[in-house]
Amino acid sequence: MFEPKRLHPVAVLSSILQTLKEAIIPLVVLLFLGGSSGKGIQLIIFSVICFFLIVFSVLSWIRLTYWVENGELRIESGVFVRKKRYIRFERIHSIDVSEGILQRIFGLAQLKVETAGSNGGKPEAELTAITKRESNEIISIFNEVKKAGKRKLESDCVNEAVTGKELTKVEETDIDSASVVFKQTFPQLFLMAATSGGVGVVLSGAVAFLAQFDELIPFKKISAEAERFIQSGILLIILTVFLLFILAYLVATARIVLIYAYFTVKKVEEELIISRGLLEKRQLTIPLKKIQGIRIAENLIRQPLGYASVYLEYAGGSASDKDTVNTLLFPLVKKEQLKEKINQFVPGYELQTELKGLPKRSYVRYFFRQLFIIIPIVVATSWILWPWGLVSFVLIPLAAIWAYLKFREVGWNISGNQLQLRTRIVSKQTYIFQKNRLQVFDRRVSYFQSRKQLSTIAATVKSGAGPREGKVVDLEQKDAEFMNDWFSYSEFKKSEG
């Protein structure tokens, strides 16, 4: 790979499709809005845009070359301004591989290169369409550089040990034999998809998409049809809504199955390799040293069934890449297996089962927060739908029950250098952070909290393109002070060192 190469020509098509995907709404509005007299002009403008898009994509493809030389991945690109990026393999933290539908048709792969200098917006370098052979060669060179660096480090350690009259045995382990593998079975995958709550995502996505075309939708005609439909009977309305919900549920379930099919996690030395996908295959490589924390999520459906999902808070990736913003380690796992699995794949993080809860006086504040949401709904419903709206008063005892469930779930634990927080908004969330990974630890006390000797604490780590915050509200003030001292002592030691 020492000669400059271009991407596969499929990269041109991929670039065009990606741009059209991002600009689909403005283009559709341009084509269909306006009177019939302006259709010819709109079509000409659309054709000109497409022509320049194709020309620019072809020129970008011609101008982009890549090769490996002197231990560097070199990429030169730019149509008008020439950009040269020389990335030493020692600086690369991870290389992520994906195969979209286009790449799979032509037997290609897409590489994303992450370094310490990668910002939150995009990876350090991206090769959208190269052959699998070239992809494997780049990854092999990267792995060899890592091994060489590790051997040098081990050699230095041995030399230091011999000099100090102590002998340290350096064990060499075979990568394959050292690998720990987790595979999501298809029955568990279907259960995960069925309990994901993805219906809301599908419905909100459909509403957001249709909202872009409000000027194209004949609302008067739809309103007239809706009136006739309502007159046809309440039973038909309920049946139609039910069928639409079932359809959205099936679409959401199928979507998640396609995304997470063949989900596999492999631990190889100091890295986790996560692969998944049926139509689009993705492979994400995460160095253990870049893991900032662990988040365990249990939604209202999975919690009674004894299942949870485990996410990695990973200091890498970009805001546009959902895989790195919310990195799944285990899509669905039995809660009794959580401790063992986390210890296997993420050494140094240990799930604690005994957490300290909130004082009883905190419950009143949790209840009042729910009342602030419920009371306006009850008043408005009772006023508009009098007298049937009075039924909405049943929401008040339900709010009391929900407040108690939230209050009961909240807790915290400090074990050595590990902080564990548990809270609930809708889903129950458990955060496990190491003290040396915390970027911010904040203790807040409002006027009303101070009267009850309560506090709120928030711990923040870097995750994806931004921060991830774990927060416990209304815990005992002395507990908050203890946690603050625990964190402040580490900061004091850092400043002294």
UniProtKB/TrEMBL annotation:
<keyword id="KW-1133">Transmembrane helix</keyword>
<dbReference type="Pfam" id="PF03703">
    <property type="entry name" value="bPH_2"/>
</dbReference>
<feature type="transmembrane region" description="Helical">
    <location>
        <begin position="366"/>
        <end position="384"/>
    </location>
</feature>
<feature type="transmembrane region" description="Helical">
    <location>
        <begin position="12"/>
        <end position="34"/>
    </location>
</feature>
<protein>
    <recommendedName>
        <fullName>YdbS-like PH domain-containing protein</fullName>
    </recommendedName>
</protein>
<keyword id="KW-0472">Membrane</keyword>
<feature type="transmembrane region" description="Helical">
    <location>
        <begin position="233"/>
        <end position="263"/>
    </location>
</feature>
<feature type="transmembrane region" description="Helical">
    <location>
        <begin position="40"/>
        <end position="64"/>
    </location>
</feature>
<feature type="transmembrane region" description="Helical">
    <location>
        <begin position="189"/>
        <end position="213"/>
    </location>
</feature>
<dbReference type="InterPro" id="IPR005182">
    <property type="entry name" value="YdbS-like_PH"/>
</dbReference>
<feature type="domain" description="YdbS-like PH">
    <location>
        <begin position="61"/>
        <end position="138"/>
    </location>
</feature>
<feature type="domain" description="YdbS-like PH">
    <location>
        <begin position="269"/>
        <end position="337"/>
    </location>
</feature>
<feature type="domain" description="YdbS-like PH">
    <location>
        <begin position="408"/>
        <end position="486"/>
    </location>
</feature>
<keyword id="KW-0812">Transmembrane</keyword>
<dbReference type="InterPro" id="IPR014529">
    <property type="entry name" value="UCP026631"/>
</dbReference>
